[in-house]
Specification:
The chain is mostly beta strands. The protein has one domain (2-93, 119-149). The chain has two helices and ten strands; from the N terminus they run αββαββββββββ. The chain has helices at residues 2-11, 29-32, and strands spanning 17-18, 21-25, 52-57, 94-98, 101-105, 109-112, 118-132, 137-152, 157-160, 168-170. The strands form three sheets. Strands 1-2-8-7-3 form a five-stranded antiparallel β-sheet, with no helix packed on it. A three-stranded antiparallel β-sheet has the order 4-5-10. A two-stranded antiparallel ribbon has the order 6-9. The protein is globular. The two termini are 19 Å apart.
Length: 171
């Protein structure tokens, strides 16, 4: 299957560590990307068709590559002090193909703590809120492990800053 080969190449770099942060993908991502959008599968190149979201999880969450949908996740931070469960969309999502390199990117994420601290959070998960199939909804895409618990004190910001080259690239 051509798509599986293409996205295997695409996702292999996501297993690399960048400093203390590790990004990995959920295994069904390779099967769901590029499949019929009429069935509401993940569509990375039509960035207006899908709504991609990110959530923060505590250190009690254990990444398992075999998970498929958001409802299987556990230990999301509670709605409190500037963080709202399930409510942070990726903004300014882009899919750019230029000079033989394809890049998927979005704006950096910022939550501002108000009235208390946000965190501690150990991981973030990107999922596609618009996926819907007979057996699942809200398909899991990527897990970002910060390498340590991160907290934003009252009035500080909790930031996820993507690499200047994008969330991921394929050359």
């Amino acid at each position: 299957m051509i798509w599986k080969t293409i996205f295997k190449r695409l996702l292999e770099p996501l297993k690399n560590e960048v400093g203390a942060v590790t990004i990995d993908h959920y295994e069904k991502l390779m099967l769901l990307v590029g499949v019929s959008t009429a069935n509401k599968f993940i569509d990375l190149d039509d960035v207006t068709a899908d709504t991609f979201k990110i959530q923060l999880n505590t250190s009690a969450y254990t990444f398992a590559q075999t998970l498929i949908q958001k409802s299987e996740l556990s230990n999301e931070l509670a709605t409190n002090f500037g963080y709202t469960q399930g409510d942070e969309p990726l903004a300014s999502v882009t899919w750019l193909d230029s000079g033989g390199t394809t890049t998927w990117d979005a704006a950096n994420i910022t939550w501002t703590a108000s009235g208390g601290s946000i965190g501690p959070a150990r991981q973030a998960v990107i999922y596609d809120e618009t996926t819907s199939a007979a057996s699942f909804t809200d398909a899991l895409m990527m897990n970002i492990d910060f390498g340590a618990d991160e907290t934003a004190a009252d009035t500080a910001t909790f930031n996820i800053n993507w690499n200047a080259s994008g969330i991921f690239t394929v050359a």
